[in-house]
Amino acid sequence: MASGYDLLHNPRLNKGSAFTEAERRTHKLEGLLPPRVSTLALQVARIHGELANLDNNLQKYLLLSDLQARNETLFYAVVMSDPATFMPIVYTPTVGEACQKFDHIFRATRGIYLPITARGRLKDLLGNWQQHDVRFIVVTDGERILGLGDQGVGGMGIPIGKLALYTACAGVPPQYCLPVMLDVGTNNLELLEDPLYLGLQQNRARGQAYYEFVDEFVEAVETLFPKCCIQWEDFANINAVPILERYRGKICTYNDDIQGTAAVALAGIFGALRISGGKLTDQRFLFLGGGSAATGIAELVSEAMALEGLDIEQARERNALFDINGLMVKSRTDLLDFQKPFAQNRAPVSTFVEAIRELKPTGIIGVSTVPKLFNQQVIEAMAEINDRPIIFPYSNPTSRSECTAEEAYR
Questions:
Q1: C-alpha to C-alpha distance for 10 and 2, rounded to whole angstroms
Q2: Is 253 helix (H, G, I), strand (E, B) or coil?
Q3: What is the secondary structure of 32-43 as a DSSP string?
């Protein structure tokens, strides 16, 4: 076990002023800490006091990040002392701003960065991680961070934040968690021209080179961490769906934006139906947005409807998608393969309100990443055809939400 100065600078083992007098003698900490021993509760109270003196959530995020880098026990104790307050700081919406400013606020490094320029050596780079028993990897390539788009290596804030929730909410020991950034470049011109940008200053790799890089990453993980589950996070639609299909039958893996979001959405629908008293098979849903999140939710809802007696094709007909080019109908020639199962066999519809009046959905689900699209016209159109309409604005961070609860009620 580490001792003395090294122990105080090991975030996984450091307890700061909470080391007892006996521990201080045993581990050569005497003289390296103020003499009075603090309880964990007192340490948490001290951090609460520091946070209360800060002006905004980004400053609070940075303070908590610094705390995580030096004392994980205290960090998780603080987060778990008031989850409703701290989860929006550690993760969305604050993490979105942190990703946007990542290169300008960079402090202690965390996790593993795998640049595509290191192809052929990914196993060596992953092997530099100090833990040899990793059970959960959250990995991103930074292309579609929340509703903010391409953030390059700044997207690393998402795997770091998500794995903090693995520990705080699910009790996964932090030593089993590894955040990973696959740096394949960025198409964000502002980042490419920023001298402080920390990632590869090149455009994003596409096609065969990209997928061979991802293959090498998966093979390295399987070799080094055979008990590991890989969670794909915030990949663009063009890569998210193929990657999931490529590996879902081969390794322990899932895509949070496709499958995790879908699970939560379906749970929300069941919660809504407990209030309205309706059956799932009687519902019709209209999605604002047609990406991987929308199709992931639509497919899981369809499968749930099939479990309750509907034919799967009938179920998919009850889940319609609407994107920037209007309602997704069979006559459109711009649909991707993963969108086609939900194309409606009807005439084109160009506005969302018109689509509501045409399809008469019992619920609308916003995954557009465009704020305020669930406006007064939309809410009123839903209320005209439903006694208790289901309104789910899911885009995040909050600044990208289709509406707030208050706006819907008003």
A1: 8
A2: strand
A3: TS-SS---HHHH
Give all strands of the β-sheet with 390-393 in edge-to-edge order. 326-327, 319-323, 285-288, 363-366, 390-393
Closest CA to 62 of 51, 74, 73: 51
pLDDT tens digits, 187-239? 999 999 999 999 999 999 999 999 999 999 999 999 999 999 999 999 998 99
Rounded CA-CA distance 57/74 in Å is 19
| Radius of gyration of the CA atoms of the chain, in A | 24
Identify the CATH number of the domain defined by range 4-88. 1.20.1370.30
Check residue 179 and report its DSSP letter.
Answer: E
Domain 92-251 has CATH 3.40.50.300: no
Q: What share of the chain is helix, strand, coil (3-state, %, to 5)?
A: 50, 10, 40
Domain definitions of the chain by residue range: 4-88, 92-251, 259-409
CATH 3.40.50.720 given to domain 259-409: yes
Quick check: do 4-88 and 259-409 share a fold? no
pLDDT tens-digit series, residues 352-376: 999 999 999 999 999 998 999 999 9
- Catalytic residue numbers? 91, 162
Give CA–CA dist 82/342, Å, rounded. 41
- Taking the whole predicted model, whether its pTM rises above 0.85 is answered as yes
